[in-house]
Write a structure and sequence with these properties.
The chain has about 400 residues and is mostly beta strands. It has three domains: about 100 residues, Uncharacterised protein PF12988, DUF3872 (Immunoglobulin-like); about 90 residues, Sandwich (Immunoglobulin-like), CATH 2.60.40; about 170 residues, Sandwich (Immunoglobulin-like), CATH 2.60.40. The strands form seven sheets. Strands 17, 19, 22, 23, 24, 26, 29 and 30 form an eight-stranded mixed β-sheet that branches. Strands 16, 18, 20, 21 and 25 form a five-stranded antiparallel β-sheet that branches. The chain has a four-stranded antiparallel β-sheet with strand order 4-3-6-7, with no helix packed on it. A hairpin with a 5-residue loop joins strand 6 and strand 7. The N and C termini lie far apart (about 105 Å). The N terminus is likely disordered.
């Protein structure tokens, strides 16, 4: 009888052990499941602050009860409810995005932990959430090498954004990227390295998101070759190495220091090896700018002269003349009203051309064709002065049309 009692006790003990093993791990000595030390910290752009529209990392210490644990996180209508798993007692973390609020507001995070046998407990975290503000795209790199400029950017909120390239302190728009390599925008661009303060002294990449937030960055200006203007030489420069058919490209006419006093630009006959279509309304005195006014703002050599107004040819007079040898000439002139004679040095004017056929086009000047085509005068207008060098022999006198 006594032996039977021992056997029954052993069987009962085994059954109790089996029942416990079915529940999961042994209970923590502190008995019931508990949630403690609930904390939150921002990990977004404005970390460690908790800001709407940005990611926050929440954590809690789970102990007691039977592991493993399931943890439910609820931001009470201000974020996404989510869950996570914890294999044993310890700290559990989760990253949640805070919703965008128009003002600072107190919020509550509900953390509910359930152990392996279904026992649950809840803890709350109260915190202040700062108002959402739109962060601009972040430009992580801007590099220039071998006439190719690359810019890489991302948006911290994941917003769509666009990239633009400009120069001359943002006054010359060079447009959207010519292509993309993953997240990197690519421009084919030959910085002509004009004199200090010229339009290509600095390139500026701007990133604008869908809500209008903007950030800017520039590559190292030291990477640009300097393009020296020789005394008494005239140049026409393409501001980009290539373009597409029927698009417009900007060209700039510059002068090295003139050998004679300068005031009236009587004529500049720009010649192109092919049929170029001038954009009549793009003719602009001085440096390129973003407005439609031909001589405002007054800049380039005209600012040095102190001119305030000009006589300019009507837009309808800007047309290409067939020279009969496959090349075409476009005539330009500028007559300032007021100002003083100067030794001109720098930008005279700029204009746009388009091409209807692919090819490589070279630009230059024509000095005389029946009458003088490229010359200037001083304020007396008593004598015509010609540049001693209008060969336009430099690396940026061509443009490739694709």
């Amino acid at each position: 009888m006594r032996n039977r009692t021992v056997i029954l006790c052993l069987i009962a003990t085994c059954c109790f052990i089996a029942a416990c093993s079915g529940r999961g791990s042994e209970p923590d000595p502190s008995s019931r499941i508990s949630v403690k030390s609930v904390q939150g910290v921002g990990i977004g752009t404005d970390a460690p602050m908790l800001v709407g529209g940005q990611q926050a990392r929440f954590s809690a210490e789970i102990s007691g009860g039977y592991a493993p644990y399931t943890v439910a996180w609820s931001l009470g209508g201000i974020g996404t409810t989510a869950s996570s798993q914890l294999a044993e007692a310890g700290t559990v973390e989760i990253d949640l995005e805070l919703v965008r609020l128009s003002g600072e507001q107190g919020q509550r995070l509900k953390v509910t932990a359930v152990d392996n046998i279904g026992v649950s407990t809840t803890q709350w975290l109260e915190f202040q959430q700062l108002a959402w503000h739109n962060n601009p795209p972040q430009i992580s790199s801007v590099t220039y090498s071998d006439a190719v400029l690359r810019a890489t950017a991302t948006d911290p909120e994941g917003d769509e954004f666009s990239l633009q390239l400009a120069s001359f302190d943002g006054n010359v728009e060079l447009g959207e990227p010519h292509g993309w390599d993953g997240d990197t925008a690519i421009w084919d661009y030959s910085p002509q390295g004009l004199p200090a303060g010229g339009i290509f002294g600095e390139l500026l990449v701007s990133a604008t998101d869908m809500r209008g937030a903007v950030s800017t960055a520039s590559p190292d200006p030291a990477r640009y070759q300097e393009f020296n203007l020789k005394d008494d030489a005239l140049y026409v420069v393409a501001t980009q190495p290539r373009m597409n058919v029927d698009e417009n490209a900007c060209f700039v006419v510059l002068t090295g220091r003139t050998a004679h006093p300068f005031q009236f630009l009587n004529g500049v006959g720009v010649v192109c090896t092919g049929n170029a279509g001038p954009n009549a309304y793009s003719y602009d005195a001085g440096a390129p700018d973003l407005d439609d006014a031909t001589y405002k703002p007054v800049d380039g050599i005209w600012a040095d002269m102190g001119s305030g107004s000009f006589l300019l040819p009507p837009d309808s007079f800007t047309s290409a003349v067939d020279l009969g040898d496959g090349s075409w000439r476009i005539d330009y002139n500028i007559t300032p009203l007021g100002g003083r004679d100067i030794e001109a040095y720098g930008m005279l004017f700029n204009f746009e051309l388009s091409f209807s056929e692919p090819g490589t086009y070279t630009l230059g000047f024509q000095d005389v064709n029946v009458v003088s085509r490229t010359y200037y005068q001083d304020s007396t207008a008593a004598e015509d002065h010609f540049w001693s060098d209008i060969s336009n022999n430099h690396p940026y006198n061509t443009i490739v049309v694709e």
